[in-house]
Amino acid sequence: MIEKLNYLEKLKNNMGEEMAEMMSEEITKVMEEQRQIEMEYARLVQQRDQLKGITNKHRLEETKKDIMVSAEPVSYTFRNSN
């Protein structure tokens, strides 16, 4: 009986380690996605700033729309983190 309990304890510990590893991988993945979104957002804001002095209003408006789309996942994350 003690051997079975010891075996079950080992299984439980292994499952905990596997869950921790899976969670760590998922967190790393989400952080990488967040970094990519932030980099795209920064690029678009920089592009918008460069377009402000240009008479190409259509491209400026497209960039502003792209910024809004790019910011949606970040806004969603912040709203749901509270």
Question: What does the model show?
Answer:
- The chain has 82 residues and is mostly helical.
- The protein has one domain (2-80).
- Helix 1 packs antiparallel against helix 2 (57-80).
- It has helices at residues 2-51, 57-80.
- 90% of the residues lie in helices and 0% in strands.
Question: Short description, anyone?
Answer:
The protein has 2 helices and no strands. Helices cover 90% and strands 0% of the residues.
Structural class: mainly alpha
Count the strands?
Answer: 0
**Number of helix segments?**
2
- Radius of gyration over alpha carbons? 23 Å
* Helix/strand order: HH
Shape: rod-shaped
Provide mean pLDDT, rounded.
78
Helix content: over 70%
Strand content: under 5%
Instruction: List low-pLDDT spans.
Output: none
Largest sheet: none
Give the terminus-to-terminus CA distance: 47 Å
Q: What is the subunit arrangement here? A: single chain
Total tally of structural domains: 1
